[in-house]
Amino acid sequence: MKREVENKMKKKSTRLIIPVLLSALFIFHGSLVFAEAKKHGFRDSMYSLCFVNEKEGWAVGARGNIRHTTDGGLNWEKQDAGTNIMLLSVSFCNPQVGWIAGKSGMILHTVDGGKTWSKQTAPKRMSLFALKALSTEKCVAAGDWGTIFYTADGGKTWEDKTYPKDVIIYSIDFVGEEEGWMAGEFGTIFYTKDGGVTWSLQQSGTENTLFGISFSSNRQGVIVGLSGTMLRTEDGGKTWNPITLAPDEKGEMQTFYEVKLRGNFGIATGDRGAIITSEDGGKTWKPTEVTMDIKLAWFSGLELLNENKAITVGTNSMAIITEGNKIKLVGYLPNVQQK
To answer: Fewest 10 Å CB contacts: which of 48, 108, 191, 231?
Structure first.
């Protein structure tokens, strides 16, 4: 029995923090990216982004790294997390109030725009990969082993609403404060219509791991995942239809870690520098042309700054700002330089 448990944990550990582990070869053997990052003095990979408007946002990542920008991602200042724990997801409901979630049940909270961060007590010390701030009082966090935490009092107390099956939840998105969706391992999709108090399963039609989810309305949404998996709905998730993506120049299907959809414009980023965009609400997608140093990187933090301008972060604090299907800026936090 002990050996069975140990083997399960070994298998599970290979599934944890997929943007890190699946891409390990590209992080540590991506010599061009690493050399450039080392030259700039930045080594901490960033996993999540949240912008409250076109100019102000936060990025979080390895070793308790929190970065804050007020100029649309060109320059970033460091904020004190008070921890070296890996931070995996950040979400703000307004410029002042936000949460960060991370490894081992780490939850951080701010009410002053990140000038100070306080630790909150999670019901269990499970790694949290996804977080969504719904209001100044309500927030949902999710992650390993079906973990779902919910607070309605600003994080003073967190309720444990964990799903009974062993499934990793990687992403959360809401339309308003009531309707929301989560996506994760084994093609799992959850839906809530009461602000995260209760969740029900939706049928995805796939068993592939799903990493990123985004809704532009309470009916239209897109999910991306492992080996080019993409699903799209036009009825709030009652039915999910697969979208066929083109393979890369090697004939391989790239993994996508995050997607954002606003109106008819969509963008998704992922492994091996993958960046694709849509101009028809996610029905069709085309790749963005990238350079070799970008191909040696992965990107898991993504935000839309306006209707078609986006920023993505990933390997060794690398950041890319795009407009439509074109790359405008490439650099490394804290200062993204002109391409």
So the answer is: 191
Distance CA(303)–CA(225), nearest Å, equals 17
Which 8-state DSSP code applies to residue 246?
Answer: P
The amino acid occupying position 200 is: S
Interstrand relation of 107-110 and 98-102 (parallel, antiparallel or unpaired): antiparallel
The CATH code for residues 2-43+132-332 is 2.130.10.10
Please write down the HEC assignment for all residues of 269-283. EEHHHCEEEECCCCC
Task: Specify the CATH number of the domain 44-131.
Answer: 2.40.10
pLDDT tens per residue, range 203-248: 999 999 999 999 999 999 999 999 999 999 999 999 999 999 999 8
Tell me if 257 sits within 8 A of 19, measured CB to CB.
Answer: yes
> Would you say the pTM of this structure is higher than 0.85?
yes
Q: What share of the chain is helix, strand, coil (3-state, %, to 5)?
A: 15, 40, 45
Measured in whole angstroms, how far is the alpha carbon of residue 171 from the centre of its chain?
6
Is residue 130 a contact partner of residue 89, using CB atoms and an 8 Å limit? yes
Cβ–Cβ under 8 Å, residues 45 and 27: yes
Pairing assessment for the beta strands 169-175 and 309-314 based on DSSP bridges: unpaired
Strand partners, 160: 149
Integer CA distances (angstroms), 76 to 68, 262, 331, in order: 5, 25, 12
Helix (H) or strand (E) holding 11: helix 2-13
Residue 79 pairs in a beta bridge with 66
Report d(CA 195, CA 180) in Å as an integer.
7
Domain ranges of the chain: 2-43+132-332, 44-131
